[in-house]
Amino acid sequence: MCGITGWIDFGRDLRAELTTIRSMTATMAARGPDADGTWLGRHAALGHRRLAVIDLAGGTQPMVDDPGHESSAVISYSGEVYNFPQLRDALTARGHRFRSRSDTEVVLRGYLEWGEGVAERLVGMFAFAVWDERHQRLLLVRDRLGVKPLYYYPTPQGLLFGSEPKAILAHPEAHARLGTVGLQELMTWVTTPGQAIFEGMRSVRPGHALRFDRTGMSETAYWRLPATAHHDDQATTIETVRQLLRESVAGQTVADVPLCSLLSGGLDSSTVTAYAAEGLAERGEGPLRSFAVGFTQPGRPVEDPAEDAWFAAKLAATVGAAHETITLDAADLTDPAARFAVLRARDLPLGLADMDTSLYLLFRAVRRHSTVALSGEGADELFGGYPWFHDPGATTAQTFPWMHHSAPVDVSGPSFLDPDLPRRLALEDYRTSRYGEAVREVPVLDDENEVDARMRRVSYLFLTRFLPMLLERKDRMSMAVGLEVRVPFCDHRLVEYVFNVPWSMKSFDGREKSLLRAAVAGTLPSFVLDRRKTPYPAIADPAYDQAMRQKLGDLMADRNAPVRPLMEEASARAAYALVEQAEPTQLQFLRLGFESLLRINDWMREYRVELL
Q1: What is the pLDDT of residues 148-172, one digit of tens each?
Q2: What is the b/e burial string over 511-542, where b = at least 16 CB atoms within 10 angstroms of the residue's CB?
Q3: Could you tell me the domains of the chain?
Q4: Residue 102, annotated ligand binder?
Q5: Annotated catalytic residue: which of 1, 2, 319, 495?
Q6: Among 5, 20, 267, 600, which residue's CB has the most CB atoms within a 10 Å radius?
Q7: What is the pTM of this model?
């Protein structure tokens, strides 16, 4: 999967800056444990950490187009392009000769043949940088759904970039500063495409290409969610979804390293697991390995039929997968080393409390057996799986649907902070403004009825503002242990088709994800098809909340805590008193709030964040 980084500077000779580019590259050792490399030119320096998945011997990076001679272009690439064999054949027919079997070289030679138009031809998840020596120009490209991350940071005479903020912050010209917009993003649960938390830092938007040269910087979209009329009947639609899913999973099971699936026993992960097991068997490979996470809960075994692990094990047995449940307890989730690893992986205090730590620990255990895993992210956003899709109040609210009947600002942080902070930061105005921006982006059909138009808007918001939060979490937690996680539901061909299916077809039987259930009805057993949607599991052991309560008490007693400038003593004490008096069930609702406060404090200390 890899990590990429680089430095462009038109005011100095970067051939003497090996130490700096190596320092930037070293921050992402976990993303690429198999190899590292750098390339230096007069005004460009590129770094790469490699997780070898395809062509283990031949995919070394950064990769130049003509080793040993004056190069036209050099690439630092992260991700997987699943249609690279077909593109390789097309390029070979045009006279290109390849030195490796890697998709990296296909992307590089595709750039030499088609320029930045190569992005439109790629199917997969990717983020890459191409330095064009001929034109002294940098091209940064990110995949359509934003599965792979890519940040950048303008400097007075150039640009820094990296897969993660930490790579950029390792450069002496980059600074960990937190301004008003960064605080607004943190405290409103708004994920604005292109926006990064650190002041001065940006993110390449999904489906966009950014160009940078001596004349400046420009960013354009090479892909947007299209609005097209849907003419297929229901039977044809169901069959098309089935075929697109099969093709997506089949394309993503290709690897030169051990592959597995992440299996909760729900509809999404079971679909991916069943199709992957079927595909491997057809190729004479397998059995597919699968993994689930479970928790030791007082008075309840992991094998309880109410738990994900029970459904996962039963589905694995049905499809012939070799299954294992990774069981965690409160001690695992409160381990300081694990919590620190999560903080360093994310670079930011965003997160889902214990669910981030458990995901990291699951991935760490999986990595002992596999290098590539398949996951079910994207299905809920695409097929209408969340309760908000079926709540008229949420779908008609003039805000992001997942914020309807909730108060994330009051629950997840400011209740422990200065109560005047939301007003001073104009958080409600910020949320309203960002919602308006998102709605104005939604593609429309002139003759679409009111319900379908409304649900198209809701789907767009989830795909472009909610899903990115989950993809970022998945990327950071998996790459922290050198595990590549692929997401078949994010294949843009499937996304384009399902996005344009009318809501009446997506919900034809009144249940969530009706269309997906119908598409896999002949593949999955009834105990999965009839199972109601459940969220990613959280630990319910009071011992965990007691441990977090103690950490919160330590923070309250620390007069030098970095988060103090954002706190107001009276409100913080009142919130802490509520935590002290809460029953275990109440603590679960308060957990996200005080965990957010703890994480912000740890983040500010570890990254030496300067408040502007």
Answers
A1: 999 999 999 999 999 999 999 999 9
A2: ebbbbbbbbbeebbeeebbebeeeeebbbebb
A3: 3-221 (3.60.20.10), 234-529 (3.40.50.620), 542-611 (no CATH)
A4: no
A5: 2
A6: 5
A7: 0.94
